[in-house]
């Protein structure tokens, strides 16, 4: 007797869920993923994000077109700098960025990513751990030099 075949439902990794937990409501946000990451894309869709786009390592995003950029993996300061530069170009004035490191990042990589984010006009840079990787989140300071801390 044949048994019915049950298709397993997609269950995003706890990492994908964890990195997006700090992000606001995504339904009307335009999100760009820099670098291939199907898990993050599926989790965004599961959270009803209607505008998700993924670009490869060397793709060039259109200027000022997205609200959130997720850099899926940065393993060197140079790779992080290139990705943050591309993300900055793509973001709107009040855009946000999430940068994920590769597994077991070094301390110098973390400092380099933080410095790169600040150098490109991001403020409120926060870091946290997620399953052996460091997650950086930051927002653009759209008021620029008018904001004094």
Overview of the structural elements:
The protein has one domain (24-141): 3-Layer(aba) Sandwich (Rossmann fold), CATH 3.40.50.150. The chain has helices spanning 14-20, 38-46, 77-90, 107-119, and strands spanning 30-34, 51-55, 66-74, 91-101, 122-130, 133-140. The protein is 29% helix and 32% strand. β3 (66-74), α3 (77-90) and β4 form a beta-alpha-beta unit. With 149 residues, the protein is an alpha/beta fold. It has a six-stranded mixed sheet with strand order 2-1-3-4-6-5, sandwiched between helices.
Give the helices and strands, then pairings.
Elements: H1 14-20, E1 30-34, H2 38-46, E2 51-55, E3 66-74, H3 77-90, E4 91-101, H4 107-119, E5 122-130, E6 133-140
Parallel strand pairs: 1-2, 1-3, 3-4
Antiparallel strand pairs: 4-6, 5-6
Helix pairs in contact: 3-4
Q: What key attributes describe this structure?
A:
single chain, 149 residues, alpha/beta, Rossmann fold, 4 helices, disordered N terminus, disordered C terminus
Q: Kindly state the percentage of residues in helix.
A: 25-40%
Strand line-up in the sheet with most strands: 2-1-3-4-6-5
SSE class: alpha/beta
Q: How far apart are the termini?
A: 72 Å
Separate helix tally: 4
Summed over residues and divided by their number, the pLDDT gives a mean of 82
* Radius of gyration from the alpha-carbon trace, in angstroms: 17 Å
- Which architecture per CATH? 3-Layer(aba) Sandwich
Counting DSSP E segments of at least 2 residues, the number of strands comes to 6
Q: So what's the CATH class?
A: Alpha Beta
Shape: globular
- Looking at this structure, what is the CATH superfamily? Vaccinia Virus protein VP39
Give the amount of beta strand, in percent.
Answer: 25-35%
Topology order in helix (H) and strand (E) letters: HEHEEHEHEE
């Amino acid at each position: 007797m044949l048994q019915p075949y049950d298709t397993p439902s997609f269950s995003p990794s706890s990492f994908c869920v964890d990195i997006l937990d700090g992000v606001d409501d995504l339904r009307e946000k335009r999100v760009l993923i820099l670098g291939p990451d199907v898990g993050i894309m599926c989790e965004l869709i599961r959270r009803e994000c209607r505008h998700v786009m993924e670009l490869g390592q060397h793709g060039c995003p259109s200027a000022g077109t997205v609200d959130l950029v997720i850099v899926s993996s940065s393993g060197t300061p140079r790779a992080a700098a290139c990705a943050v530069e591309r993300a900055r170009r793509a973001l709107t004035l009040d855009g946000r960025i999430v940068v994920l490191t590769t597994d077991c990042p070094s301390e110098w990589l973390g400092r380099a990513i933080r410095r790169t984010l600040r150098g490109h006009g991001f403020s409120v840079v926060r870091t946290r751990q997620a399953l052996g990787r460091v997650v950086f989140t930051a927002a653009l300071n759209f008021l620029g030099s008018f904001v004094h801390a």
